[in-house]
């Protein structure tokens, strides 16, 4: 493989600056999540990016979708007024204990009384002399607080130029989004374990198995957040109630998603197979159960390739006890549930 040589003249400095600014915002957002001990699997409603520079704000806006994706936040807001931001020096006692000894208390009092200008200078230079002791950025960090901001669900992180305020308030909608992402991740993990390729002809099915302490939330998520789950998977996830029993099982697994005694997620992956419109098929055979079984079994004898060919020609004929039944594609059956028009009704 030929690897091209780096050409510094091809680098667009404006794009490089914008990406650097975007990365700085993402890093501050991750810092907020770490402080609140809330992982990236949990969606957040809003975050506010505060910076006085109009150019900075415009650069981040251009790349906002990346910020939203990396931090899993639904809405990004911007503010330019940072006058109500208060800086505070926070000493690392574990690191400074041996270094300062009996001067520790004196240095701590002095650190608490540092001016905003002192702390800004410290952030810019990475060091500051306090009571004759040089304190580095490894020995003291700078915390930020917005005056009048008392909401415990808000977390503030920042550097010398930018502040990020993230809202960790949770509600039912965010909970459902988090669970839908969990479902998607578990299904993706199953596919990987089964060593499936993107274009392998399989169908995936899911069901909520009620537990003694179950909340019913999982079933609600499977129904109401189906589109969100499928967007994450980039393929359909069908309700297990639609399975017709003849599909060949590739892998099946039960996941504990609500803790001990809670509802469980049952996921099955099957080889794609004929999918029947049971009402239309029953009407075709005149409610003759044996004829219906014969039609089903005959359709299952074909390979997917051959069955698809028959579908393109309209369907297939089934002869049973002197009668001929014409199974029409998209009326009586399809290859897998994805093409079944009767499911859309």
From TrEMBL:
PANTHER family: ISOLEUCINE--TRNA LIGASE, CYTOPLASMIC (PTHR42780:SF1), SOLEUCYL-TRNA SYNTHETASE (PTHR42780). GO terms for biological process: isoleucyl-tRNA aminoacylation. InterPro entries: Ile-tRNA-ligase_type2 (IPR023586), tRNAsynth_Ia_anticodon-bd (IPR009080). It comes from Alexandrium andersonii. This is Uncharacterized protein. One of its GO terms (molecular function) is ATP binding. Pfam families: DUF5915.
């Amino acid at each position: 493989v030929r690897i091209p040589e780096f050409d510094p003249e091809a680098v667009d400095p404006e794009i490089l600056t914008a990406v650097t600014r975007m990365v700085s915002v993402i890093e501050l957002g991750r810092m907020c999540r770490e402080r609140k001990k809330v992982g990236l699997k949990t969606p957040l409603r809003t975050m506010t990016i505060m910076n006085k520079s109009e150019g900075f704000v415009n650069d981040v806006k251009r790349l906002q979708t990346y910020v939203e994706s990396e931090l899993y936040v639904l809405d990004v807001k911007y503010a330019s007024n940072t006058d109500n931001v208060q800086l505070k020096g926070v000493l690392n006692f574990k690191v400074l204990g041996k270094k300062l000894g009996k001067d520790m208390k004196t240095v701590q009092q002095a650190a608490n009384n540092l001016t905003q200008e002192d702390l800004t200078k410290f952030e810019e230079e990475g060091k500051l002399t306090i009571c004759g002791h040089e304190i580095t950025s490894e020995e003291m960090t700078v915390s930020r607080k917005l005056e009048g901001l008392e909401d415990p669900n808000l977390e503030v992180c920042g550097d010398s130029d930018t502040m990020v305020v993230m809202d960790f308030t949770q509600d039912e909608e965010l909970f459902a989004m988090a669970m839908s992402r969990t479902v998607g991740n578990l299904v993706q993990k199953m596919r990987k374990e089964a060593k499936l390729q993107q274009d392998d002809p399989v169908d995936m099915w899911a069901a909520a198995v009620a537990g003694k302490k179950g909340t019913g939330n999982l079933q609600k998520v499977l129904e109401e957040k189906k589109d969100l789950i499928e967007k994450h998977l980039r393929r359909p996830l069908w309700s297990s109630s639609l399975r017709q029993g003849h599909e060949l099982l590739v892998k099946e697994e039960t996941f504990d998603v609500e803790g001990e005694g809670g509802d469980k997620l049952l996921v099955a992956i099957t080889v794609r197979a004929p999918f029947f419109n049971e009402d239309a098929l029953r009407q075709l055979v005149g409610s003759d159960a044996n004829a219906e079984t014969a039609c089903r079994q005959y359709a299952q004898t074909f390979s997917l390739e051959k069955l698809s060919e028959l579908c393109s020609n309209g369907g297939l004929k089934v002869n049973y006890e002197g009668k001929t039944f014409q199974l029409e594609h998209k009326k009586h059956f399809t290859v897998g549930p994805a093409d079944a028009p009767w499911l859309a009704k």
